[in-house]
Sequence to fold (156 residues):
Amino acid sequence: EDGPLLAFEDSCEYLRSGSYTCKPPADCWLLLDYLGKYRLVDACWHVDLEDRILEGRDLVGRLSGKRGVVSLCLAALEVYLGNPNHENREALRLAYEAVPRHNRRYCGDMDTKDIPIRMILYGQQEIESWSHRIASRQRGMSLPEISVPLVEGPDR
Fold:
């Protein structure tokens, strides 16, 4: 039997209360229709509840005709790159941090992912977590670079 239809925010409260979950507990049985069942011994769930809620809120917004958070972040990046200043960096930070962490890699291109944004927001050292740089270092190759305009100042 179907349960009651809930407003999105009400369903978020149910998730936060533990009434429903985004991840099954360890040592439970999961039933896959027409396939069978299996016992879940251990699992790694890399997306936390608040990020799932952010993702759901973004999906509801996009279904309502609003721009998605990744699109808004890319627009904020474009504004910053056109005029790198403290205000535009703060707008970029707000837009970037509104994106669920597991989707932030889409705030860029296939090669650099969100590394340029992280460099702008959190400093040059963020390039060290770029997969291309890590692989090049492991192979003894010259290290690739990413150049972004940085705004220095007391709030960095």
Q: What stands out?
A: The radius of gyration is 20 Å.
